[in-house]
Amino acid sequence: MTDALRSLLNDLDRLADQDTDADGDAEIDVRASTAWLAQASAEQITMLLASLLDRSPPENTAVDTLLAATFQQILLRILGRSGPGPPLFLDDAMAALIATVYRHLQPVSEARELLPMLLSGSRGQRALLELADLLVDDPPRDPTRVAAALSPLFQHDDYDPRWLFPRVLNALMHASVAVCVLDLANFLTRRHRFGQHPAAEHVQALASLLGGVVGRLGQLESTPPQSSQEIQQRSHQISEGLSLAISLCDALALIGDQSVTGKLYQASQLSHRRLRAEAAGALARLGELRGRDMLIQLAAEPIVRLRVLAYAEELELLDQIDSQYQSDRARAQGELVLWLAQPSQIGVPPVGCDWIESRCLYWPGFEEAVDCHLFRFTYVFGDMQFTNVGIAGPVCYAFGCDLSELPTDDMFAAFAGWHAEHEEMYEFPVSQLHQTEQVQVARLARRLHDEGYQQIQPDKLCLFFGDRVLVARAVLDDQPGLAVVDDVQTTWIPQGDSNRPPGPDEAYCIYKGRRLLGHFND
Fold it and tell me: How far is CA 177 from each of CA 60, 87, 292, 341, 414, rounded to the nearest angstrom?
């Protein structure tokens, strides 16, 4: 046993004896204890994994954190991302050992949920057989960990999918696994890795599952929640049910059995437009004329427009869809609405999304001119209405502050400045500047004073390709706002009437965008 391995095991034992969770010192130990794994041999890693079986499963966060860092280092070795050497090869014995360690650890362990990623990352036969068994018998509780474990199988084709299927289809009983397994089966079928869909023999079971999910979603739609806690719980249930229903619709269409059309029609009657689009697309692929008609009509809905157009192209139906829904502007509207509806953004589509203006611009980060589309979107939450501006084309984005009172030129500039990255553009809060740079702040603030600005409050000093730029809050003609000043010009952004006006960060984005777009565009 090497000194590094012995030290790591000693750290695990020491942390296991602690009554409290890891503190700052433990974080330093984590890095120091696991760094050697970047160069460890397969024999050393095997010895480490075997040693974990001689220890009790972790009962505190400190041990689990160190184990997670350990498994992460081994994963990087398997993926070939820890150094210049070749990836770590998992032989049959090590793959079986990883699965045994997984079963040894407690389900509450976050480190445990990294171990399936080690098996999928290697893509070996024994590793994938073990992975299938874990997903069926005792899957990770976190769906994101399941998705991460299966993601290498979407990215590579150097494995035989029969090492997973049909065995892994038995994992459809687990809510945390079902969507990911179906999506993988659908993906592999589209890539012609199977002669027929691996779940073809289970088509009636899938149809029954879809009927049950749709029935449950229908109940949730018809009974409004009564409390904020119920709203949150209901949202999670709906999201989980929709994801499974969408994957089931896709699977049934790929299987191609027309006996399931009744369940698909049932799904097409729910209010959720994404599910209606998936059900209509599945029905259309099964030759149902009503499904085609529903798909064509759904092109008018921005939230599903891109999906509908993709299905229509596959089914050679584009000539039956109104041309206004196939334009670049309409596709851009669909992109922005879909982006806004992501859980990482607002989470639901807006009630309205109206076009403001489109321009073909040379945009930061692009060699050729790109079409840039601005839209004003609106949300209604009870008695409150929320309106803002978003962009689609070179990027989909919307600020948290309200840009709707800005001139259109400054709207484009704000997004361009936000999107731009360059090593010669950086900024510092005024409170963190050295005395030398404070002199520059005072000099630029004096320029603002001389131009008639009052109540000047410097916020940040920026360097823009060698130019020093000051962003400050100020008042001009009794109107509060933001001033961005350099040695040549001043950009003034009045606060206006919005309760979410642009702040110093957005003001600097407008400044950067003005200069960049002005330099590259006539």
Answer: 27, 28, 31, 23, 41
- C-alpha 23/C-alpha 237 separation (Å) is 36
Domain assignment present for residue 143? The answer is: no
Same domain (yes/no): 437, 515: yes
pTM value > 0.85:
no
Instruction: Domain count for the chain, please give it.
Output: 2
Domain of residue 474 covers 425-520
CA–CA gap between residue 421 and residue 488 (Å, rounded): 23
Give domain status of residue 41, yes or no.
no
Report in angstroms the alpha-carbon separations of 291 from 247, 249, 409.
17, 12, 44
pLDDT average per 10 residues of sequence, the chain (522 residues): 87 78 51 86 93 89 91 92 82 96 93 95 95 95 92 95 96 92 97 95 95 93 74 81 95 96 96 94 96 97 96 95 96 97 90 96 95 96 90 96 95 97 93 91 96 96 95 96 95 90 96 95 84
- Bridge partners (DSSP) listed for residue 392: 373
For residue 281, is it within any domain?
Answer: no
Q: Are residues 445 and 482 in the same domain?
A: yes
Tokens of 72: 């992460």
- In a shared domain, residues 389 and 445: no
Q: Is residue 188 part of a domain?
A: no
